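G., the chain you wanted modeled:
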Amino acid sequence: MRRIKLGRRISRAMDFPEELLSSEPCVKVFAGEMAVIYGQRAVLECLPGSVHLLTENGDIRLLGEKMHIMAVEGSIAHIGGKVTRVELHYDGEDG
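Predicted structure as tokens:
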């Protein structure tokens, strides 16, 4: 617990997204026109109607129109297009 608090303080000081410190995947959708996924490991599929990503705990599928990958930087993926639905298929013990 102490390590996470220290990491959060450092991330705030460096203007770093806190989502990078977590092992859980995180999806942020901005105005339905763009999504940022933290914790992705690989792109499984990219079609005009969906983008399918692998995470440590399962997979995430974003559905919509004109979906495309804008950038992948390490464990962060930026997805463009009209996002209408996000599906999480969780393989963890608690889900």
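The mean pLDDT is 84.

Shout if anything looks off.
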